Amino acid sequence: MTRLWWRCGPGEASGRALAGALLALCSLLSVLFVLPDARADAPLDLSPTGRVTDTVGALGRRRGQVDASLEVLHSTHRVQLYVTYVRDFSGRAARTWADATADRNGLGPHDILLAIAVRGRLFAVSADKDSGFQAVQHQQIANVAIAPALRQHDWAGAAIGAADGYRAVLEGGTVRTPAIRPGSKDPGGDGLVPGERAVWVPLAGGSTVFVAGLYLWSKRARTAQRALVAAGGPPLVATGTEPGLARLAQPLTPLPELAAEAEAALVRTDDAVRTSAEELFFATAQAGEAATRPFAEAVGWARGELADAFRLRHRLDGADTADDDLRRHTLDEICSRCSSANRRLDAESAAFDRLRDLRAAAPDALARAEALARALAPRLATAEAALAALAPGHPEAALAPVAGHPDGIRDRLAFAGAALTEARAALSATDRRGAVLSLRAAESALHQARMLISGVLRHAYGLTAAAARLRAVLAAAGDDPAADEARRLMAKGPYDPREVLRELDAAAPGRPGRWNRTVLAAYGEVAAARDAVTTQRGATGCRARTHLAEAERHLTQGAPDRARTLALQSRALADHDTDGFIRPDDMPPPVATAVLAGIVLPPDLAPACFGGVRTRGRLGG
Fold first, then answer.
1. In 240-347, where do the E strands start and end?
2. What CATH code would you report for 3-199?
3. What 8-state DSSP symbol labels residue 509?
4. Structural domain boundaries of the chain?
5. pLDDT digits over 379-401, tens only?
């Protein structure tokens, strides 16, 4: 595992184990103690009973305060901060010791380890390179929230400061130095084995029971994984993010609640990624690709995390296993992936706002949006004409995926026009905030109108191109029985050329050009499903999004038949969710359309903008 690290200390570490008489004493006490194989402060197993491993008694009565701070960070942001207190780092560099301990315990990208050596007040923070935090953020927390506490021997304050610091970063706040309460300068200094956890013989039996139980739990999880792989499925949890031993004793959320939490996280994160991509389009038009590259990278990174989360969800849905531990770990990983994606987008939201600076740039941005609205109006007529030309020769089912698009385009253009008028009026009244709110809503509506227009024209082109390919295949087939049946079907009246081609290719799998035709058909269905989910995201649930994500993955991996099937299922699920959308009686139809499309966010109906779940609704604040 590649991990990042930050270390600090006001002086050199002096933590050498006691020698001479102490060695003799240790030998004498070996019958009373269970001694480790390695040195006392070598990389160790994290505590199985919590996130804190205190081998020197540094926390004392403040252990509860530290536990509470770590729990708040985890419950609000799904980030696990583990803290270790040891006598010293056994002569190793702080970085090496922290990374080795993190690797030993299987900490993943959403786990952070704060390792503290009380002799010399040294510390290191070990975090995965894919944690979603930036190096400057880790360094700020180290300098502001951790080091000042350690300089005054406030061992609990360092952990509390770290937890509060990471929470502040995730919430867009200011990292602050914790209230300092100086503690013992040499905690654990009078211990028989410096830096070691004493394990009395009376506890050995209990330890054996725990280890045996842990082995059985691990064996059961591995058995379930092997059974799943043997059945043709991949492991549910990636080995790189296998939770460490210290997670086992955390309070457990009931599985139904955790499953609901994971589904909600997937939907909210997917909405955030799609909204961010939409506004990125306008930011690029405003500032250029070079200026927006960091934000494009953030969106791409968030998409990758989200794709992994959807893949886990799909595997879990199809897994034939009743192992609750396996399901729990997978659901927890889904939530962690979503949190990671949101953290990256949230971390970039302030810089994105500075780049766009819509309050200052509102006049120019408004002019660009008005120009786009004028350009889209005639394209609506083009889309309607394309559908009208196809209607006589095709059955309703062939046009069904885009039959409702003209109305959707018209609704979004009308909403955008009204919002642009409001933005122009707000500018005239020097109400820059009101202008920004209306402008962002208009931009999102215009982006979706543009997407729907492209969807109609793409679908029309796909049908026309399929008809041309069908004619070419029939000409080359000669008196092939399947070709004769296709000709009879076409002679009866309206037909879908894509379906006829699929039947021909199914009858003769080796027919020239079959692969290309299959890929083109899959691309069309995946694009149609993507349009449906994106433009109806205010009502679309988790299953439709999961099927779409899997369709996109299969398409990129060279499985077009499977991609097409998943895309069709995704679109059907999205349409079903939309049919169940109930407009509140007091909500005007244009506003209801904007809510359904995810353009504005209930309850305050502020426009969504670039950012993760925490920041995408900030314009309403």
1. none
2. 3.10.310.50
3. T
4. 3-199, 251-355, 371-620
5. 999 999 999 999 999 999 999 99
